[in-house]
Amino acid sequence: MAHVELMATSKRGAALLDDAMTLTPDGLEIRLPTMSEAIAAQGLWRGLASGASWGLRVEARVPAGSWLDLRSKVASLKTKGRFGSVRWVSSFGDVRLERTEFLSADIGMGNLTIGCCDAAEITGGAGDVTITEVGGSLTVDGGAGDVRVRTLRGTATIRTGLGDVTLGEVSASGGTANDDGDPEAADVRVSCTAGDVKIKELAAGSVRLSTAMGDVTVGVARGSDLVAVDLRSGSGSARCKVPVAPDPQVGGPPDAPLTWGTPPLGVRIRATSSSGDITVRHSRRGKRDRA
């Protein structure tokens, strides 16, 4: 059984308690006056001040695996424990989740921090995205802000306008690289307009990384074979410090034609930068500075 508490953290919040929470057939609804309503009731300056902070906090205790569907104009969200599915839509506010099976987040402005998730679809206007571990698929479409993922064990598509993308340990499998004949296919795809792209340790899978303005750095895990590499920089250096092994999928010498449309065995890297350096090297085992 769920337990929900609505608490006032200010005198202004206490005055709203009676009318703020309503139980409807669709669930619990908590509604605060809009900014325009506050200005109409209290005048310009008092309305603006009260609209900035209503002084209310909602605390809910629910069974493990519960689903959350939350929408807010201005609010922050923090969860503890495991949730089955979380949907969060907010114009402004930070989000901190401990563990969820699936996350769908649409945040206008605010930082998002996740412990562990099986899959996530994230859209953000401005703010950082930080995830400890992703076990399945990850999609991030951000405007401005850094994206950091410590461990990725599935597939990812990440797009940012302004911000760096840093992935720690990457062991991708079963992704879009299995789409036969697709030259754009890759398990991990990262695209930045302005920002650096870095993978600290790539153990398996294919990656396609691009930035218009920034550096690209990939560390290949020791013990993993680099079977295909394609590096292109418009106004910078492109260096691969890892020997290219014969492709077990194709056979033949290391300079055999790349085959991006087949399931990858080993590591495949395709990286481009219009203005920046590209470096592929072995990861620093024993000195892992994870995301």
List the keywords.
single chain, 291 residues, mainly beta, 2 domains, 8-stranded parallel beta barrel, two-stranded antiparallel sheet, 3 helices, 9% helix, elongated, DUF4097 domain-containing protein, Toastrack_DUF4097
In short:
By secondary structure, the chain is mainly beta.
Give the overall form: elongated
In the sheet with the most strands, the strands line up as 9-10-12-14-16-15-13-11
Helix residue percentage: under 10%
Through-space gap between termini:
37 Å
Biggest β-sheet description: 8 strands, parallel, barrel
Radius of gyration: 23 Å
Helix vs. strand class: mainly beta
Residue-averaged pLDDT: 79
Number of strands: 21
Helix-strand pattern, N to C? EHEEHHEEEEEEEEEEEEEEEEEE
Strand content: over 45%
Count structural domains: 2
Question: How many helices?
Answer: 3
Detail the poorly predicted runs: 37-52, 175-181, 250-264
Question: Would you mind describing this structure in some detail?
Answer:
By secondary structure, the chain is mostly beta strands. The protein has 2 domains: 1-61, no CATH class; 128-282, no CATH class. The chain is 9% helix and 55% strand. It contains 3 helices and 21 strands. The chain has helices at residues 11-20, 35-42, 44-52, and strands at 3-8, 21-24, 27-30, 56-61, 67-74, 77-78, 82-92, 95-109, 112-126, 129-134, 137-144, 147-152, 155-162, 165-171, 188-194, 197-213, 216-220, 226-233, 238-240, 267-275, 278-282. It has an 8-stranded parallel beta barrel with strand order 9-10-12-14-16-15-13-11. Strands 1-4 form a two-stranded antiparallel sheet. A two-stranded antiparallel ribbon has the order 2-3. Helix 2 (35-42) packs across helix 3. It is elongated and about 65 Å long. The protein starts with a strand and ends in a 9-residue tail after the last strand. The model is unreliable at 37-52, 175-181 and 250-264 (pLDDT under 50).
